Amino acid sequence: MITIRKSEDRGHADHGWLDTYHSFSFASYYDPRHMGFSNLRVINEDRVEAGAGFPTHPHRDMEIISYVLEGALEHRDSMGNGSVIRPGEVQRMSAGTGITHSEFNHSKDEGLHFFQIWILPQRDGITPSYEQKLFPEQEKKGRLRLIASADGAEGSVTINQDAKMYASLLGQGQEVVHHLARGRHAWVQAARGSITVNGHLLEAGDGAAVSDEDLVRLTARQPSEVLLFDLP
């Protein structure tokens, strides 16, 4: 079964400095039909004006992944980390017992476009930690590149949950297939371009919940970037 979540049906808020879309209920956007999917709790697509950002704020007991599409995301946190995340890089924070952090557009004259993903942890109360890795474009072209997993397989960032996150860059007509184990689910997020998921059309910003399927077949109708989550 495949259920499409159209881009225009997502929660939306335009704060001037921030234009944000929420696949699931978040902040002032609440829809009891869209509270998450499996242990995937948040997929926010954020566009941040030059020099603007999120002042210091707290998190706890959440796996937080940032995936930058355009621009540069500047990060500082209470663990002493200070970094800039650019396209191709993935940042992972395990909030655990509690952290505070800030996120700003690093540029003073260019916009920032990124996804922030929250995944519920397998266990609460862990020690907070941070990780940032580069996944070169070449490793994502024409294939599903594992970028987050419970065991850090294939050099992916490590998350405190039995979930996997993949990224792929597909040329027009290219296809990739991901096999789902019995009882597993998938979420597909079209980041750019236009794809089909088992024949169902997804445009940029659309998502798809996949259950009771043996595989997920992604076919690009034009050059596309896509995220796939394999979930319990």
From TrEMBL:
CC cofactor note: Binds 1 Fe cation per subunit.
Matching InterPro entries: Pirin (IPR012093), Pirin_N_dom (IPR003829), Quercetinase_C (IPR041602), RmlC-like_jellyroll (IPR014710), RmlC_Cupin_sf (IPR011051)
Cofactor section: Fe cation
Annotated binding of Fe cation, by residue: H57, H59, H101, E103
Keyword tRNA processing: no
Database matches in SUPFAM superfamilies: RmlC-like cupins
Boundaries of every Quercetin 2,3-dioxygenase C-terminal cupin domain copy: 146-231
An annotated Gene Ontology molecular function: metal ion binding
Domain Pirin N-terminal: 8-119
Alphabetized UniProt keyword annotations: Iron, Metal-binding
Family: Belongs to the pirin family.
PANTHER family listed in its UniProt record: QUERCETIN 2,3-DIOXYGENASE
Protein name, as recorded: Pirin
Organism, as annotated: Citrifermentans bremense
